[in-house]
Amino acid sequence: QIQDPRSATDDILFCVNGADAPVAYNGSGTAIYISSITSATQVPIGKYITQHANRIYIANIVDGTDNDSPVKVMRSEFGSDGAPNPHRFTESFYVGGSSPEGEIMGQALLRESIYYYTQNSIYRFWPGVGDTAQLDKVTSNLGLMAPRTLVEVGSGHIFLSQRGVYVFDGQVPRHVSPKVDSFIFDNSIPGQL
Fold first, then answer.
1. Phi then psi for 8, rounded to 5 degrees?
2. Which of 29, 135, 148, 186 has its CA 20 to 30 A from that of 58?
3. Alpha-carbon gap, residue 150 to 158, rounded angstroms
4. How far apart are CA 174 and CA 40, in angstroms?
5. Other CB atoms within 10 Å distance of the CB of residue 185
6. pTM reported for the whole predicted model
7. How many whole angstroms separate alpha carbon 4 and alpha carbon 84?
8. 143: Cβ contacts below 8 Å, ≥ 6 apart
9. 30-45 per-position pLDDT tens digit
10. CA quadruple 161, 50, 38, 25: dihedral positive or negative?
């Protein structure tokens, strides 16, 4: 939960849909665009959003002027007073850059890290002291097949890749079962996942 910058008594929920500007909702009234909050800065449009350690992370940015925007992550800042500013996005980093790894297809928390899943790789971001350079590639040639096929469960993730269903504990992705893969791939249309 992050405090609503408009009211010290409200917590706030942030939402994205990949097409429209992100919105903030405090449980009363209607949702408002984050960019309409006084002193908002560079609020991006993106496909995925998560909150970690009082910052907002928006991934797979929609920006026609940046060829690498599908692998770009923007995050909110802390103010000079040390308080979170969930409406000011002044920092960004890239997960992989333009490469055969493909665009960011999802992001999920695990312990104190954020994991970014591209189409063909998994990266771990260690926010730690806030340095955006703390990004490590965990695995290559294995990523997320489709948006919304990543689930956070207990102490890991379950995700669907081009090679089947995997369980990931933050260290090593492990294949679940050829039977599960057959059931999913035989009973679905991959382009509609």
1. -70, -10
2. 29
3. 6
4. 42
5. 15
6. 0.86
7. 10
8. 101, 102, 105, 117, 118, 119, 120, 121, 122, 161, 162
9. 788 887 776 777 888 8
10. positive
